[in-house]
Design a protein that fits this description.
Blueprint lengths: L8 H13 L15 H7 L18 H11 L7 H4 L28 E10 L2 E7 L11 E4 L3 E7 L9 E2 L4 E2 L9 E7 L4 E6 L11 E7 L7 H4 L25 E16 L2 E8 L8 E4 L3 E8 L10 E2 L19 E7 L4 E6 L5 H6 L3 E7 L9 E10 L9 E3 L3 H6 L4 E4 L13 E4 L3 E10 L4 E6 L3 E5 L9 E4 L1 E4 L3 E8 L4 E7 L11 E6 L14
Parallel strand pairs: 1-4, 3-9, 10-13, 11-19, 12-17, 18-22, 21-29
Antiparallel strand pairs: 1-2, 4-7, 5-6, 8-9, 10-11, 13-15, 14-16, 16-17, 18-20, 22-27, 23-26, 23-28, 24-25, 24-27, 28-29
Helix pairs in contact: 1-2, 2-3
Bound molecules: copper (II) ion (CU).
């Protein structure tokens, strides 16, 4: 399931983000959510690893992240490894990239994870279990239920070149040569029995690097967490869904049709939630008009809805921003017309009581009212909105989650999301992609309903910020982080100089732990005079 592919990763990302910042990305991952491929990839997002001598060391992080994600994305026919890290793909082309694709049947989400660290000890060479039931055991016996997706992380603990292979499952790690480097891969334990795992470096198996994986008929309780996992509709709005520029045209009549729908959507990995939406995605569709246009809004409420819905557009001059005229019971429609008098980027949202609840459940979007003559042309435009989700279960809890009225009233969301879903914009199909040197514009809004965003892109500086989405004053320049209130928006523009992976966040970074993270990949040649590893010449 594609929707399950990346959804957990944001939590791990948070941990690794901190590790990267503190320069110890190779540290063991203390991760409560074990499938950390995206996180590893994120940790490996430092570009420009093209230096000579990198070969030996480049088995860590980068390669594995990409490889494993190839495994992960098999179902989705998505060659993430290459696309996802355009700036980093010096790795994985060493001829061993195919091993990650060895088992097209492997679901991304592992059922069982093990970490093995190579060690040279009194008993000779071997694997030492790290964490879980095998912690501290020498060449531990790995017990897994039949059918489980097994994820193995091999950590190099002795600085000697090693790998680990499970030949009966046609699975093996990369060779890792430097101390602290690691390799992660996954396979399905599709047959019952006892099978050897060992290091394939000549002589190492004989020197002691061998253990047993025991695949048993289903073990009760082993799979409980996954059993509670739920799958819902993909509600993430593709951030490239930006209508074309208005250009230099005269004012006209624009008809907009919106349908409100209530859908059980994928909130996080294994977690679903009943979203209330404009058009089945969060945020609702971006609307783009020009100043002086007359806009007819036709709001339909799906007959399948339970609730009445409506629309309040902040671009409207009139009571309720249209909400007074558009309270629409299920199966009905309402129409109203307004004139867009003032340019700007405006939030729209449902305004049916309890308004905060309708917003929190996903009912918000942006309408851009371009000034006469249009906005300056740019190479790329994106549409991103931030919102909160209040669930009864705690962050990360599996299964269908009921809305929590109490948490809404306390303004304590369990999730904070870009485009509707925890980690949604880290997914391959929704990550923002640009080329270096291009002008990039993000239309960014906060649905909220409650939290102010400190919008920031890790590794990038906004060249221009149309503060509070004021499109008629000169923009701010050279801004690191910009404030966007609930029911407010901004327009940021920048050019990425250096290739690599950049991370969209609210710099109130606790929210990253709650799912608020997106990726922006920039592709292009390295620019060592701007950013490079190592000392200056
Ligand atoms: Cu509503």
């Amino acid at each position: 399931m594609i929707t399950r592919t990346y959804l957990k990763a944001w939590l791990i990302l948070a941990v690794l983000f901190v590790l990267v910042l503190s320069g110890c990305a190779q540290a063991a991952q203390p991760n409560p959510w074990p499938d950390s491929q995206v996180a590893q990839a994120a940790a490996a997002d430092q570009p420009s690893a093209d230096e000579a001598g990198e070969e030996a060391a480049d088995n860590h992080g980068e390669g594995e992240g990409a490889d494993t994600m190839n495994v992960a994305n098999k179902d989705a026919n998505d060659d993430h490894g290459d696309d996802a890290a355009p700036a980093n793909d010096d790795h994985g082309d060493g001829g061993d990239d195919d091993h990650g694709k060895q088992d097209a049947d492997v679901d991304y989400v592992p059922d069982v994870t093990f970490t093995l660290e190579t060690a040279l000890g009194p008993k000779g060479l071997g694997f030492v279990g790290k964490g879980g039931d095998i912690d501290g055991q020498f060449n531990p016996t790995l017990v897994v239920p039949k059918g489980a997706v097994v994820q193995i992380t091999l950590v190099n603990g002795d600085g000697i070149e090693h790998d680990v292979a499970f030949p009966d499952f046609d699975a093996h790690s990369d060779h890792i040569a430097t101390k602290g480097s690691s390799s992660t891969f996954a396979f399905r334990a599709d047959k019952v029995g006892e099978f050897a795992y060992y290091c394939t470096v000549p002589g190492h198996r004989e020197a002691g690097m061998e253990g047993v994986i025991k695949v048993v008929e289903d073990v009760a309780g082993e799979d409980q967490e996954e059993a509670g996992a739920a799958v819902g509709e993909d509600i993430v709005r593709d951030p490239t869904e930006v209508p074309p520029p208005v250009g230099d045209r005269e004012p006209t009549l624009v008809r907009v049709e919106l349908e409100t729908k209530e859908v059980v959507g994928q909130l996080a990995d294994g977690t679903t939630f009943t979203y209330w939406t404009f058009g089945g995605k969060v945020p609702g569709p971006m609307i783009r008009i020009r100043e002086g246009d007359t806009v007819e809004i036709r709001l339909k409420n799906s007959p399948d809805s339970q609730m009445t819905h409506s629309i309040d557009l902040h671009s409207v001059n009139g009571p309720g921003g249209g909400a007074v005229l558009t309270q629409t019971p299920p199966g009905e429609e309402r129409v109203f017309t307004f004139k867009g008098l003032q340019p700007g980027l405006y939030v729209y949202h449902c305004a049916t009581p309890l308004v905060a609840q309708h917003i929190a459940n996903g009912m918000y979007g942006l309408i851009l009212v371009e000034p006469e003559g249009g906005l300056p042309e740019v190479d790329r435009e994106f549409y991103v909105m931030q919102g909160e989700i209040y669930t009864q279960g705690r962050t990360g809890e599996k299964g269908f989650q009921e809305f929590s009225f109490d948490k809404l009233m306390a303004e304590e969301p369990e999730y904070v999301v870009f485009n509707g879903m925890a980690g949604g914009l880290t997914r391959d199909e929704y990550a923002l992609r640009v080329n270096t040197g291009e002008t990039v514009r993000i239309y960014f809004g906060v649905g909220g309903p409650n939290l102010i965003s400190s919008f920031h892109i890790i590794g990038e500086i906004f060249d221009r910020v149309y503060d509070e989405a004021d499109l008629t004053s000169p923009p701010l320049t050279n801004v690191q982080t910009t404030l966007v209130p609930p029911g407010g928006a901004t327009v940021v523009e920048f050019t990425v100089e250096v290739p690599g992976r950049y991370i969209l966040v609210d710099h109130a970074l606790t929210r990253l732990e709650k799912g608020l993270v997106g990726f922006l990949y920039a592709e292009g040649p390295d620019v060592p005079e701007v950013y490079k590893e190592g000392p200056a010449e």
